[in-house]
Amino acid sequence: MDFDSAARMVRESADSIRKQTKKDVAPKYCVVLGSGLTAVTEALIAGAEHLRLFYQNIQHFRPCTMSGHRGALVLSGDLAILEGRGHPYEERSAHELAHHVRTLGWLGCRSFILTNATGSLLPDLFPGSIALVEDHFCLPTGLDPTVGVLDKDNPDETRLMRSEFLDAQRLYHPKFLEQAEACAIELGIPAPRRVRYGIIQVGRRYETPAEIDFGRRVGIETVGMSLVTETLAIKAMGANTLAINGISNWAVGIEAALDGHPLTHKSVTDVMEELVAPQLSRLIPALVGRSTTPVPI
Predict the structure, then answer these.
(1) Vertex 148: Cα angle to 147 and 152 (nearest 5)
(2) Rounded distance between C-alpha atoms, residue 91 and residue 208, angstroms
(3) pLDDT tens digits for the chain (297 residues)?
(4) How many CB atoms lie within 10 A of CB 213?
(5) Closest listed residue to residue 222, CA positions, set 241, 200, 191, 190
(6) How far out from the chain centre does Cα 234 lie?
(7) Which of 34, 98, 143, 246 could join 233 in a cystine, given CB atoms 3.0 to 4.6 angstroms apart?
(8) Beta pairing partners, 116
């Protein structure tokens, strides 16, 4: 898919959302909820008036196929919540993976909080804890939404890609990271550590011990199946990202892990629902409630 097609589809999705809300939509924050985190929505809307649009009712929004992802957009005041996302193992291109956050950026959102389930490569980063992504490493090809022919004279295309080449430094906004750390301390949530997150493989499987060993050697501290494509697309639009890893398990081969113990999607979502969601149900509303919004850099 080229940028012209991607921009057309984003514009049509934004128009589809506007038509269904019957009013101007201009969210300030967008929160993307990963596996097992749907309950965080209730803490974010806190009984306020809201509208839920299921992805299949929004033009060009592919439905979620995995359990733990409701597959809906919730709009409440200046907040948008994406309850679930697509993944590379569902045979989605980089432009498809970026489509939902690009649509919210098109509608005016400038600050994004991304969440996902991840495995820990650190023996002292326990399942049930949270971590803040400071940088990332992506080994597989095909996940970069900045790939494609770009017509810099086309205003729609340049809304998705503001410069011919993206400066990928500070993808995860330093001020956003500081705000998250301060909020966690104020709320009595165990201080989340900053980590280097990585994607090592894109299949419908978990990593092999050899892949995890490679990840450790190149400095990866948490591993997962999402975030990277969305973060690059958000930065390319000139918006800000905070990414929060929910630690659902130790990666295979880590000393603290039970080697040979089967890792399943249910075991991942159980930890996210029972241990991670309660923390994020306190932390993210506090972040969204802060009056200061990071300035794009």
Answers:
(1) 110
(2) 21
(3) 889 999 999 999 999 999 999 778 889 999 999 999 999 999 999 888 999 999 999 999 998 887 768 889 999 999 999 999 989 888 899 999 999 999 999 999 999 999 999 999 999 999 999 999 999 999 998 899 999 999 989 999 999 999 999 999 999 999 999 999 999 999 999 889 999 999 999 999 999 999 999 999 999 999 999 999 999 999 999 999 999 999 999 998 776 665 556 788 899 999 999 999 999 999 999 999 864 555 554
(4) 15
(5) 200
(6) 10
(7) 98
(8) 245
Q: Secondary structure of the chain in the HEC alphabet?
A: CCHHHHHHHHHHHHHHHHHHHCCCCCCCEEEEECCCCCCHHHHHHCCCCCEEEEHHHCCCCCCCCCCCCCCEEEEECCEEEEECCCCHHHCCCHHHHHHHHHHHHHCCCCEEEEEEEEEECCCCCCCCCEEEEEEEEECCCCCCCCCCCCCCCCHHHHHHCCCCCCCCCCCCCHHHHHHHHHHHHHHCCCCCEEEEEEECCCCCCCCCHHHHHHHHHCCCCEECCCCHHHHHHHHHCCCEEEEEEEEEEECCCCCCCCCCCCCCHHHHHHHHHHHHHHHHHHHHHHHHCCCCCCCCC
Predicted pLDDT at 293: 56
The pair of structure tokens assigned to 46 is: 């806190």
Decide if 263 contacts 148 (C-beta within 8 A): no
Q: Which two tokens stand for residue 52?
A: 């839920």
Check if CATH label 3.40.50.300 holds for domain 3-288.
Answer: no
List the structure tokens of 42.
């209730």
User: Rounded to whole angstroms, how far apart are CA atoms 25 and 107?
Assistant: 6
What pLDDT does residue 32 have? 97
